[in-house]
Design goal:
Elements: E1 2-8, E2 17-23, E3 30-40, H1 42-48, E4 65-72, E5 84-87, E6 90-92, H2 98-101, E7 113-114, E8 135-139, E9 144-145, H3 152-155, H4 161-171, E10 179-183, H5 187-198, E11 202-207, H6 213-219, E12 223-226, H7 230-235, E13 240-245, H8 254-257, E14 260-268, H9 281-285, E15 290-293, H10 299-312, E16 318-321, H11 326-334, E17 341-345
Parallel strand pairs: 10-11, 10-13, 11-12, 13-14, 14-15, 16-17
Antiparallel strand pairs: 1-2, 3-4, 3-8, 3-17, 4-5, 5-9, 6-7
Length: 349
Amino acid sequence: MTVARAYAATSATSGLHATTIERREPGPNDVEIAIEFCGLCHSDVHTIRGEWAGTTYPLVPGHEIVGTVRRIGAGVRTFAVGDVVGVGCLVDSCRECDSCLEGFEQYCENGNTGTYGVPDRRNGGGITQGGYASSIVVDENYVLRIPEGMDRAAAAPLLCAGITTYSPLRYLDVQDGDTVGVIGLGGLGHMAVKIAKALGATVTVFTTSPTKAEAAIALGADEVVVSTDPDQMASAKYSLNAIIDTVAAVHDLNQYLRTLGRDGALIQLGLPPGPMPAINPGALIRKRLAYGGSLIGGIAETQEMLDFCAEHGVVSDIELVTAGQLDEAYDRMVAGDVKYRFVLDTATL
C-alpha cells in the first residue's frame, strides 16, 4: 500500500478536511497516476452532503481526474511513465455482460464500479476513493489518454460533463446543419453548446434567466430563448431536431417538445430530485418524437470525445480552486455561482 494525501468528508455535515488514504500497490495491469487536477461535479456535492442515499463515510469524492503516470504494472502496454492521462466516472465493470462487451461499460448489467463511493469488487473490498487526492491506482482499461497540448486543468471536466453531453449528441447522430436545443446553461449545458457547435449544429439555448443570453452567445449559441416568455417559446415551435436537457430541477417538458420537428428527440441528462410533470403522449405521437435519457459514456467513447475536443479546441470553462476552498466552492455550486466548472489544483492538498 502507498499513502496519498486527500480531502474527505466524515459525515453529511462535516465538510471536507485534509486526511490520508491508502492506495493499493500497482498490480500487473494497473496504472498509478500522480493527480494534478480534479474537477468538482454537482454529484460530488449531492453525495458528500448525504442528499443521495447510501453514502459511506469517510469518503474522498472526485471523478474528473487528470494527472501523470508515475508507475505501471508489468503487463501494462497502453501507457508509459510520464504519459498525461485521465480517469472519469468509472474504474471497473464486470467486463462480461453484453453492455461491457459492446463498449457501454456505463450500463454494465452487473453493476459498474464508480471512481468513488462504491464497493471495490476486485481489490479486497472497501469503498472506492476518488480524485481529491494526490494519487490513484486504476486498471489500464479504465484510463484515458489526454491529447497532447490540451490544457490539463480545463480537460478535467470533460471526463464527466464533456462525455455526458457528447454521448447523446453522438447517439442522435447530430451533424452539420442540424438544429439542437440545450436546456440550461450550467456545467453540462455549456459543454453541450460547445460540442454541438463543434459537430456543426445550429444551437438554441433555453434559459429561465434573460441575463444569461450574452453568456450563451459567447459560448457559441446561435439563439437564446427565454423559456418563461410565451412569445419566444411560440417562435421556436418546430425549429429543432434534438434537445439536450441538462436541468436537474423539476420542470415541465411539454413546452420544449413543441419546439421539436417531426422525428425529433429530447434526451434527459439532469436528474431532478422529485417527479416531473407528466408528458402528454399526444405530443410524442403527433410528431413521432422520442424522449430518452443518457448516462456518461463508455471508455472508448470517452477517448473518442477527448480526441474530438482536442481536434476542435473544445475544453471546459473553469475556475481553479485550492483544497481550502472546497467547501466554499460547493456552496457556490449550489447557488449557481460558477462559470462553469470548478477544478481542484491538487498541488494545494
